[in-house]
């Protein structure tokens, strides 16, 4: 168990290897143990806590992954923090991949919650910003090593209809693929 100022977490490993590979689950009592995934007043805090827990665990884990695969805005700050988070400097070399399932939901929140993000060089804050707010999905598009979608046609669709991120996706298209 790791404790933060505002949450603690556990990482559980599935013991039976039923999937044919190691499977780990992050548990954050009081934040992630909800009946639904979305729709809570503290969604920003919940998703930020999850991302911080994952990175804290990775930075202390005896193994390091070859790649960190992120999905949508829920894990969208991980590519930024891998590269620029001061306490994650030991993870900077690990590439990140972002899969976009639904670009309509981007996880935006106000700069008043910046204090919830682990320390980084404030000169890099532009990588978090999109239209005056912190936008995890936009940040992931900017910072991930590669971007993919759930299908080639969805990637093409996003270049034209991504809830305001079309220009960014077009600018980052060299690292994007539909799969």
**Termini, distance in Å?**
37 Å
Largest sheet: 4 strands, parallel
Radius of gyration: 16 Å
| Structural class based on helices, strands and sheet pairing | alpha/beta
Helix content: 25-40%
Can you characterise this structure?
This protein is of the alpha/beta class and 179 residues long. Helix content is 26%, strand content 18%. It contains 5 helices and 9 strands, in the order βββαβαβββαβααβ. The chain has a 4-stranded parallel beta sheet with strand order 4-5-8-9. A 3-stranded antiparallel beta sheet has the order 1-2-3, with helices on one face. Strands 6-7 form a two-stranded antiparallel sheet. Strand 1 and strand 2 form a beta hairpin. Helix 2 (78-84) crosses helix 3. It starts with a strand and ends with a strand.
Question: Can you describe this structure in just a few lines?
Answer:
With 179 residues, the protein is an alpha/beta fold. The chain has helices spanning 43-60, 78-84, 136-143, 152-158, 166-171, and strands spanning 2-3, 8-13, 24-27, 68-71, 96-100, 129-130, 133-134, 146-149, 176-178.
Topology at a glance:
Elements (H helix, E strand, L loop, with lengths): L1 E2 L4 E6 L10 E4 L15 H18 L7 E4 L6 H7 L11 E5 L28 E2 L2 E2 L1 H8 L2 E4 L2 H7 L7 H6 L4 E3 L1
Parallel strand pairs: 4-5, 5-8, 8-9
Antiparallel strand pairs: 1-2, 2-3, 6-7
Properties at a glance:
alpha/beta; four-stranded parallel beta sheet; three-stranded antiparallel beta sheet; 5 helices
